[in-house]
Amino acid sequence: MDKYIIEGGAPLYGSVRVQSAKNAVLPLLAASVLTEERVIIRRCPRICDVLHMTEILGELGCKTRFEGDALVIDGADAANHEIPAALAKEMRSSVFLLGSVVARFGKARIAYPGGCDIGLRPVDLHLKGLRRLNVRVEEEGGYINCASDRLKGAEIVLDCPSVGATENIMLASVKGEGTTVLRNAAKEPEIRDLQDFLNRMGAKVRGAGTGTVRIEGVRALHGVEYTPMPDRIEAGTFLIAAAMCGGEIAVEGASAENLAALIDKLREISCKIAVKDDKIYIKSDGERRSLRLIETMPYPGFPTDLQAPATALACICEGSAVIVENLFETRFKHVPELIRMGADVVVRGRAAFVRGVPALHGADVAAGDLRGGAALTLAAISAEGRSTVTDLSHIDRGYSGFEYKLAALGAKIRRIRV
Ligand code: UD1
Question: pTM of the full predicted structure?
Answer without folding.
Answer: 0.96
